[in-house]
């Protein structure tokens, strides 16, 4: 092969490879590192068996689906949320469809805002199973209201639940993992923790706080390589997060009948989470386009991202006032899901 031909081939590759990556990105529903791990990485079925997994917010949505998919992998589950009756329903679902027995699932009602109860809850898990291999910080609530119309108590509740509650439980579990020199802490954040949006100011603030906390914790755990932190940033996912969102007043419920058919199926989001856990990925973004693209713009071009967010925010607020899901504007980018 002549040098001239070799140079032509290298030049052709230099053009084709970026094009291939661009086309992959247009079809992506997660960051490319996570999608590579899905293709070539370790399987959850190999890595997550025989572990004790504690899930907060396990009564619905991502937490419920995570429990369901993990139940097929032969793990021991600890299910926590405030609604004990719903946790029992999730437990029955896991027993009926998974590979677990009654003794493998502990229902442990927990209020994340009651931080005084977290130490006792941690001791209860250790007494039941003797260890905690994975803590999944999934509990939390969203928000749908404008800053000017929102009571300060709503912002306090969001910080107490989403941020301080998660920090408190993490601090209770972390000494056990340090003693064993191993463990995984998986925190379900949100792309709103990277790209702030209108109508969710308090929610975004709590998620930004979580990102700062766990990034700092990463740097403090350098001498414990067996303890891994995984921060998961989902975009819109089919769940009850909008239905249960806080509004301008703590006691005012969110309106019903919000269409979520266009959002990512919870099962797909959870499968990608399990892959990230199996491969010890530090930060993963999970979302359909164009919201995934928006996260990249916020990461690398924040000034332009802020301008774009302000423009899209006008439509988001208009949708909200018209009793539509604020994110429904993005259905123009892709066909509606069945």
UniProtKB/TrEMBL annotation:
Gene3D superfamilies in the cross-refs: NAD(P)-binding Rossmann-like Domain
UniProt keyword Oxidoreductase present: yes
Pfam families: adh_short
Species this chain originates from: Rattus norvegicus
Keyword S-adenosyl-L-methionine included in the entry's annotation: no
GO MF, one annotated term: oxidoreductase activity
Name of protein: Dehydrogenase/reductase 7
Keywords noted in UniProt: Oxidoreductase
SUPFAM superfamilies: NAD(P)-binding Rossmann-fold domains (SSF51735)
Entry's family note: Belongs to the short-chain dehydrogenases/reductases (SDR) family.
Residues spanning the membrane: none
